Amino acid sequence: MANVRWRISGEYFEACSCDSVCPCPTSGLAARPTKGYCAAGLVFRVEHGQHGNTKLDGLSFAVLLRTPGPMVQGNWTVGLILDERASAEQRGRSRRSRAARAAGPWRRWARSSAVSRAPRRSPSRSR
């Protein structure tokens, strides 16, 4: 599973608990969050995407995370909210990728997570 190829393009939105501009992206995730911890939401709207042979076009998902200190130190708690329109195959890809400690864009998160919550499904409302 670690060699499965990912490809996604679309829109990405991110917000975190830092007081102003998040110091993490420019520090290689090594900076201390401004409040000492990080609580963040990362939302993706996939225009075109694929995981192995599974199409992801038109789906949305969110990753919610919390770290007790600098992200690079690990011990993250991570949750995933999947578009309720995701097929059983698409949901299965999500679970298998996380269980295999994912390749592609999720590799860093998977290695850093101490607690991984079960994915939940939710309606997607994008304009």
Task: Write out key terms for the chains shown.
2 helices; elongated; 127 residues; mainly beta; 14% helix; 7 strands
Q: TL;DR of this structure?
A:
By secondary structure, the chain is mainly β.
What does this 3D model show about the protein?
With 127 residues, this protein is mainly beta. It has one domain. The chain has helices at residues 88-99, 107-112; strands spanning 6-16, 38-51, 54-55, 60-67, 76-83, 113-116, 120-122. Strands 1, 2, 3, 4, 5, 6 and 7 form a seven-stranded mixed β-sheet that branches. It is elongated. The relative contact order is 0.21. The mean pLDDT is 79.
Q: How many helices does DSSP assign?
A: 2
What count of structural domains?
A: 1
Roughly how much helix do the residues carry, as a percent range?
A: 10-25%
- What's the count of strands? 7
Write the layout of secondary structure elements.
Elements: E1 6-16, E2 38-51, E3 54-55, E4 60-67, E5 76-83, H1 88-99, H2 107-112, E6 113-116, E7 120-122
Parallel strand pairs: 5-6, 5-7
Antiparallel strand pairs: 1-2, 2-3, 2-4, 4-5
